[in-house]
Amino acid sequence: MSTALLEIEDLHARVAGKEIIKGLNLTINEGEVHAVMGPNGAGKSTLSYVLSGKPGYEVTGGTIKFRGRDLLSMPPEDRAREGLFLIMQYPVEIPGVPVTGFLKHAVNAGRKYRGEPELDTMEFIKMLREEGRKLGIDAEMLKRAVNVGFSGGEKKRLETLQMTILKPQLAILDEADSGLDIDALKVVAEGVNRLRDDRRSLLVITHYQRLLNYIVPDVVHVFAEGHIVRSGGKNLALELEETGYAEFVKEK
Amino acid sequence: MTAGDRPEIIDESGDKYKYGFVTEIDADTAPKGLNADIIRLISAKKGEPDWLLEKRLKAFEYWQTMTEPSWAKLSYDKIDYQDLCYYSAPKRKNGPKSLDEVDKELLKTYDKLGIPLKEQEALAGVVAVDAVFDSVSVATTYRAKLAEKGVIFCSISEAVKEHPELVKKYLGSVVPYTDNFFACLNSAVFTDGSFVYIPKGVRCPMELSTYFRINARNTGQFERTLIVADEGSYVSYLEGCTAPRRDENQLHAAIVEIVVLDNAEVKYSTVQNWYPGDKNGKGGVYNFVTKRAACRGVNSKVSWTQVETGSAVTWKYPSCVLQGDNSSGEFYSVALTNNRQQADTGTKMIHIGKNTVSKIISKGISAGFSNQTYRGLVKVAPTADNARNYSQCDSLLIGSTCGSHTVPYIENRNRSATLEHEATTSKISDEQLFYCKSRGISEEDAVSLIVNGFCREVMQQLPMEFAIEAAKLININLEGSVG
Questions:
Q1: Which residues of chain A are within 8 Å of residue B441 when distances are taken between CB atoms?
Q2: Is any Cβ of chain A less than 8 angstroms from the Cβ of B427?
Q3: Domains of chain A
Q4: Rounded Cα distance, B483 and B479, in Å
Q5: pTM reported for the whole predicted model
Q6: pLDDT tens digits along A129-138
Q7: ipTM score of the complex?
Q8: Element (H, E) at B251
């Protein structure tokens, strides 16, 4: 009954000539929340960039299917338009480009791709303000240039807002909790949870268990040395909090 | 619009210059070459008074002693000034009284350009259009409404006849014929342009706009604009330019003079989109312009805003002479060069009066194999107590084959002056492009978003409709610059 949204088979990928992902297998079904945990340098962020198609992340083997289609043959913008979204660990600044205009471009690019009419500007702004309010983003912040002069918390909230507006099928959270205090973390987690339904899925990449208190996963994977070394239920995350990652690193 | 309407638009090299078409009109054209007789011919054709002819001849005499400047970072084929035509006018009988009398071909051309010349379009746009076609003004609208307020907005030729006292007093008073090689040439051979006078205490009821267009083959363009803002008045003047494509280089050497008296303010905005030449640098307009404003009165204010996307070669430094105490000058500029375009542009702020303030915001975008130089002078005279200047020059490079240079000159002769200069050079980063793409935005859109963001501070200075047009122009000119 469950339909696979993302199917990764025997993935190998390298960055700057160095193999980082070595034979990764992962299937995420519609509606599921998967957490990928692991030590620093294990290749967790590499996975998120490979999925979103960042230049310089070279796939040397394996396949990735997204909604049954070959993800790797799509340019990054088409992956986004197909419903893949990455909450970045370090969102970049785009001087002079207001949040509102930026998001309108993004939304309409997706609508055009799907053959839908462009959104009416007034309606869009109304919707954006409403969603922004839920994340503690006021109208003033929407007028500011994308990420310019934003605090760490503001950046993550803006990432969450973008996700809310773009309504992806699969959202990837890359260390979404880094640099966040507990209140900001809660706001981001609530935003993510609001998006959850039986069709949309999440891939939460995190070093710490903390975030998973707020975004509760269905499946937890331990990612070490370039592939998944262990999978389990949400309790695995708690277990890892106790024992650390040492045993998995040693395993190799 | 279908391709059939404009077969000339896309040539075999696939160039996208939207306004590249030539109107077939019998031009009343002088023979090639420049000498005193040609100048007499121009003056006679225009039925000018003797005092103006004398001015022209004096300028011509001086020009012959001058040499073309070579200090700018520009390289172009030597211009043969004897191989150009200095006069070309659309034929007309007794001068059109209304648009019905205007050459239909001409109206069609303006339609293609999207110029709101037709009455209803002018109504919709609520701008008065003094359109210059080649060298002679052919139509002027909204004169009546302006006349009610005492605003004079007409061609320079008309002003010479109808308001000789104003023209005599101010023409050449800001840019004398001895100023520079190109200004001197213009002073000798200028054909037409616009004249604006805003009387004391009047706020001009609409934005004034002029569209320039270079048309007849081998005809140099020597526009002359004079704006006088009398005490306590205000005017916003828009200048928009497009030109048909052609293979020979075309010379343009205009002069714009602005006089601002006590408590008056002038805003001058330009969108310049002349034919930049093809991808290999063939053809395109040579644009050598002298623009200067004299803030003569106390508390007078002038603001130059320019968006320069066209021309093969640009040599242009709109300047402010801040004579009146508490006067202020502003310069906001976006210059975009692509392919083989070259631009050497900037401003001069001359502080003479006390408490004078100037601000320079310059944004240069270079792509392709283009080369761009910001050249600016901030000069503070010993009399200019408490003068202040803030300069910001930002350059954005697209790709690795273009060049960008910043040459700020500062001459300060008063210890109480406060001068600030900031300059940055940046590239569109892969990280920024990826960020946009990961949100579904295509590379082309991402570049245009980032570039428009980069220029925002300047674009915000433009009147709304002009800003939209300018943003479109920037996008058109960026096409093919990435990927």
A1: 77, 105-106, 109
A2: no
A3: 4-248 (3.40.50.300)
A4: 10
A5: 0.82
A6: 999 999 999 9
A7: 0.95
A8: strand B249-252
